[in-house]
User: What shape does this take?
Amino acid sequence: KKQYRIAVIPGDGIGKEVMPEGLRVLEAAAKKHGVALHFDHFDFSSWDYYEKHGQMMPDDWKEKIGKHDAIYFGAVGWPAKIPDHVSLWGSLIKFRREFDQYVNLRPVRLMPGVPSPLAGRKPGDIDFWVVRENTEGEYSSVGGRMFPDTDREFVTQQTVMTRTGVDRILKFAFELAQSRPKKHLTSATKSNGISITMPYWDERVEAMAKKYPGVKWDKYHIDILTANFVLHPDWFDVVVGSNLFGDILSDLGPACTGTIGIAPSGNINPEGDFPSVFEPVHGSAPDIAGQGIANPIGAIWSGAMMLEHLGEKEAGKSIVEAIERTLAERTLRTKDLGGNADTTACGKAVAEMV
Amino acid sequence: KKQYRIAVIPGDGIGKEVMPEGLRVLEAAAKKHGVALHFDHFDFSSWDYYEKHGQMMPDDWKEKIGKHDAIYFGAVGWPAKIPDHVSLWGSLIKFRREFDQYVNLRPVRLMPGVPSPLAGRKPGDIDFWVVRENTEGEYSSVGGRMFPDTDREFVTQQTVMTRTGVDRILKFAFELAQSRPKKHLTSATKSNGISITMPYWDERVEAMAKKYPGVKWDKYHIDILTANFVLHPDWFDVVVGSNLFGDILSDLGPACTGTIGIAPSGNINPEGDFPSVFEPVHGSAPDIAGQGIANPIGAIWSGAMMLEHLGEKEAGKSIVEAIERTLAERTLRTKDLGGNADTTACGKAVAEMV
Ligand SMILES: CC(C)[C@H](C(=O)O)[C@@H](O)C(=O)O
Ligand SMILES: CC(C)[C@H](C(=O)O)[C@@H](O)C(=O)O
Assistant: This one.
């Protein structure tokens, strides 16, 4: 029987409410599929912890969670209490950088029971992955300000793309495309306007494509690509983009399927040198926290992604199918999807269907 | 009787087919509203010109068109024949930079007769402007490559934001918001991830907002903002963004209203030190060029924006209304909108309704 140690970090706001449901479903799936999950709980990466300690995480956070097989994360950030650059850069972005989670992976899938904002699209019509570079690119901290507080004031910030960084995300994306029936990869670029880094990105895509002759690939400038997410979401299979472009596409994609509130994500170190983080796309949602009405599907679906990442494909798949069956029943959905279940009732429903 | 000199540059592909219709409608509106338009025609900024002269424009292009009251432009670019960095950077982007057209302005409006890809939205529901910074930001040419062809290879490119550049686009956007009934401005940012330039952008927005107490404003990170274009397009009135963010939003917005093929744009130097360029958003569309089926509405609508920019509000408005009446009739629409009119028939219909 395979055994995995999971670090559980609920974080802030509704993170604390959806995680118990995620754990409930993970336990049900583990039991059914003969997988042993051992959970260690941590209270850091939260406002409570920050209030007590003046920092988001303990100094030895890497020792505490660096040896786990994966990290199961709720939500972080509470702008009214802690500025984003403290809360996000002190936890989530630290994980991405220091655990070298260079892949940010998100499914874009039209699910039953979730009304699509796009006219005439039905479940099955939209089903693709966004693969985002997660460690470099536009999110550098290189740059600065000159002539402050004068009319000549200016700021600069560099986008940095390394061959290592670009090639490894492209490799991941091409392999993912190759593993899917359609074997189709779309690259997000903007080489007609961003004249140095983006042509480099294109160049590396072309070089990598040679190694995957079975994969059909194309590229679109990011402006028209966002338009095509709305106009032709059925065109896509695997979409790969830089840190910024991937960030945009992996919010826009779920929006096109009406599912920002239930979308999952993985921050993945494919080599397994460090643990990967799995978390719902929704944030801590202070406005609805504490009411027991948060939709737990994003956390549950993230748990499924975690199992798949650990190699437990069957267990992961059984959760995704249970989610689909749950969403199809109005009474089992939470309010945001027109149902009347609360967080716990929805979580229990998925756990029972697993 | 006011008199204006317009430089007309049809450019490439369907640019050559839609411009005559744009001119036809401009002439009709000018006649009706007692405006005198004088057109000078130029053949540069096209593949034909490039083939003959090895460059996109004559050396004295600035003398040739720099004194006109406005430039009415068709389309440029034919990737199969000229690389984008030659065709676009040799014309369109040169105009933006050297004529200091620091505002890129595009309406996002759901028009009658144009099916919206968004479920349940009707004409009147979506009506806002995207204001894009058009000269600096992410489209710098500052950067380079190090350690070429080795594993250590990397490229960098700077985003550059100057106080002059940021403040003047914000001023334009706030003034536009103030002139509209809703008086609402939305700023596109990404200060939680892009940690130097974007917080600076936010800082200047806050400073500028103090000068426009009558304008309600808010800001969204670009990722969730693109999502909200799809989920809540009715939230927006004036949206302002950097060169890249504005570029993305001003393709995504028209896509949400189903109108990429008919959207107009202005590249504007508000002070009038240099001529502004008005052009349809669609490109040269080599695939349908020469068939007489191109939709001329983008060019015609751009003509309306040009008249408004010149101060001829009534004449501009009469064209927009004529467009709406034309689009409402299936038989007057072009094929791409389910009609059966060709380019000329559609243009004539608008001209008659002006
Ligand atoms: C052609 C390209 C350089 C241009 C841009 O990105 O500015 C285009 O997308 C536009 O929006 O006018
Ligand atoms: C919180 C923020 C820094 C983050 C990002 O932009 O990476 C978020 O939008 C995400 O996608 O995880």
Observations:
- Residues A 192-193, 223; B 88, 247 surround 3-isopropylmalic acid (ligand 1) (CB under 6 Å).
- The first strand of chain B starts at residue 2 and ends at 11.
